From TrEMBL:
Residues 70-86 have a biased composition (Acidic residues). GO terms for molecular function: GTP binding; metal ion binding; ribosome binding. Residues 299-463 form the Hflx-type G domain. Residues 50-69 have a biased composition (Basic and acidic residues). This is Putative GTP-binding protein 6. Keywords: Coiled coil, GTP-binding, Magnesium, Metal-binding, Nucleotide-binding. Pfam families: GTP-bdg_M (PF16360), GTP-bdg_N (PF13167), MMR_HSR1 (PF01926). The lineage of its organism: Eukaryota, Metazoa, Chordata, Craniata, Vertebrata. Residues 261-288 form a coiled coil.
Amino acid sequence: MWALRAAVRGGAWLSHAVRGRRLPRAALLPPPPNPERTLAGVRGGLGCSEGREGGRRVPRADGRRSRADGEEEPEDAAEEEEDEEELLRRDPLLPAGTQHVCLVHPEVKWGPAKPQGTRAEWQVAEARALVCTLDGWSVVDTMVVPTKTPHKKLIFGRGTLEQLTERIRGSPEITAVFLNVERLATPTKKDLEAAWHVPVFDRFTVVLHIFRCNARTKEARLQVALAELPLLRSRVKSDVAHLGGCRGSSRYTMGSGESFLQVQQRLLRDREAKIQKALERLRSKRRLLGQQRRRREFPVVSVVGYTNCGKTTLIKALTGDAAIQPRDQLFATLDVTAHAGRLPCALTVLYMDTIGFLSQLPHSLVESFSATLQDVAHSDLIVHVRDVSHPETELQKASVLSALRGLGLPNALLESMVEVQNKVDLVPGYTPAEPDVLAVSALLGLGLDELMARVEDAILRATGRRTLTLRVRLARPQLSWLHQEATVQAVDVIPEAGAADVKVIISDSAYGRFQKLFPG
């Protein structure tokens, strides 16, 4: 209908050339001799290293496997791990190498689709941060483009789209476009790529790639693989549509009575079931470790917050753990990790570093990682970290609280949450408006003593611990038992009595066991 439509048809192969192919996709999609192989791609993503957890496996003469460190592994466990690694082999999501990106933000100024509580420049700043998180990627041009039709196929009106096309085509330094929308339909993506002559990416693809790069444990990598399934399904439908338009292509595969689309859909269902099964195995192990931890009665403090708010830096400051290496980028933490620290009363607690939140996070990613965030439900205290230097700090707070409520956390846990306003060193003269909020600078160590005291008080109340002074006999194993089951603060030996007064912090359950074991 317009010259643009001709450009769309003529350049439809470009999105595939970006992926390193020179032929149109239709020429590459004959029914494969073995459909089970069609979902297996190269390992890992581009522009990141996806480390494999555990030791390398080497074959043995008897057909069993062992780790490179010499430890034998049960055959079933080795097969399960091989299956899990097979599930983690995926096609790259983004092109390799340096990319000069044009950031296009569709701005809706009125109507129900208009975002509330934010401004276009803040949304653009977050989108720019997402792009700059990728190695070798930079934003060379930014366009905030008004639109009345954000939900239509090409997002923009005819005139606006023609202006965009002229500007992008006229800038040879642009190698890719990041369209700041949650998800692009496959036909929309192909039409825009054909018109602009460069690959086009949405928030879902960019965030998913960042998740891939930052996933370290096998559970996190499997969760990313689960989140990718909607993207694979949309690609399958698009590929089948191209295949169906080819002359001479067969509708059925290998005489099985299944169409090519049905085969692909079945393989994706099988893949999803296998990923869910592998995740459940890993979660069972984590639940077992959690039960062991609770038996030892380590209180748990979950540290949550918007991505890049300084959670990891704060945990490093509270624990003094030199091994923690915070990174100034979005989604630097993707796995839930535990770090031991001591409170002023000498009680050991575990600080849980969690995945950061993001507004407009694609729904399938939220679903995939909700199980990881369920660990928060088993904590004794939540510390909500906020970046008060960010212009959208109130909107970020609302996003985090909404996500926490969506996890179905106990009301008592939500009501006892401690809010920490971080990065006050970037806001000279800052004072919190709310009375119960703590202002800190995790980087400079400001306000940490007050925070530790607040955490200590909350933990003692949440776990039913109290401070007692107990008299124990030195000839009996009472003192060693207290060192194992409670937090000993001071010991005052009374030689003439053969006893000692021991000041301890002890839970009600431990104190009950002490009285049963050592009556009188």
